[in-house]
């Protein structure tokens, strides 16, 4: 098998973790609907929530008034919140209307929000009841995207975890790729694995209900996203086995991820090298262009998407950056442990958030680039810090070889912009 660069003499696998348990500044899990509804082509996401939930989704998705997206909000009115109306009856009625108008829907997700959580609306029982009514054409599932229970990317985790218990059983040896990726990126991964001779690969989420995978004790799975902790647990409960590996960001991460799968399926070294040599070279060349800007620059991560640890590994080992602090909402060691082991020792590793304390550390550090949420970016920019929106790292295709250069450029662009503005100020 291709030799990967050695891990650092001192990685962050055993580094102490600063546990933060204060106020958070992050989007709620409802935001995941924006990419999930594009991925699952015959699914519909019905948020049971308030007008605020509806405005959030419309703003995040940029929905035009003429569009008919595959998500909506069933508005909880004052009578629902006060217990003066039967919210379950109203929900049944709205779902009936929706499915009558949209016969193309094969999977319907009832998505809990802060209001539905507060009034203890049992969407689990509602999903079971509605499945009995509308089966076999439509399966109804539920999960929570409430900001009380979930942060930004946990919405996808909760969604996929809700699907695992109802997956059909299968005793055959098979590989599952877990995590929602843009179709073009997913096709690249499937193509590389297929060229190595690995057949029968399935994905979760599948693009259509008819392609939903099965699962059993001979199923192995590889995660493409670091924030799928609950999905990981549900798959393990069903008897599937995880293939631990660094996440496929950048040339090194992608090679290590593919290498772990190749070892599992007995792919020989010559085949692996023949399949990966050309795309690896393209990835290295593309990343090198951004490295000219990123080399030696310092970066500070606020906790937002749970992508922070693998991204810090990519930026330090492949782009020459120095990480000051790597904050992440949660650390799932079974998932990000391989990335932590590769991340060179030095940065503060923090889990959770106390936003005021972390703002103080960010202001003291004054890193060349601060990765944070939208709510913090503008105030920090006004204080002279260069920022990168964490949300863009989730909405942009960044996985695997062909996107490695684009991923590096996402971090290089704001630094170049700052340098150009400085030159303009000097010239004036």
Overview of the structural elements:
InterPro entries: LIPOR_BchN/ChlN, Nase/OxRdtase_comp1, Protochl_reductN. Protochlorophyllide reductase is composed of three subunits; BchL, BchN and BchB. Forms a heterotetramer of two BchB and two BchN subunits. Belongs to the BchN/ChlN family. Keywords: 4Fe-4S, ATP-binding, Bacteriochlorophyll biosynthesis, Chlorophyll biosynthesis, Iron, Iron-sulfur, Metal-binding, Nucleotide-binding, Oxidoreductase, Photosynthesis. By secondary structure, the protein is of the alpha/beta class. The chain folds into 3 domains: 149 residues, Nitrogenase molybdenum iron protein domain (Rossmann fold), CATH 3.40.50.1980; 122 residues, Nitrogenase molybdenum iron protein domain (Rossmann fold); 91 residues, Nitrogenase molybdenum iron protein domain (Rossmann fold, 3-Layer(aba) Sandwich). 46% of the residues lie in helices and 16% in strands. The chain is built from 17 helices and 14 strands. The strands form 3 sheets. It has a 6-stranded parallel sheet with strand order 1-12-11-10-13-14, with helices on both faces. The chain is globular and about 65 Å long. 47% of the residues are buried.
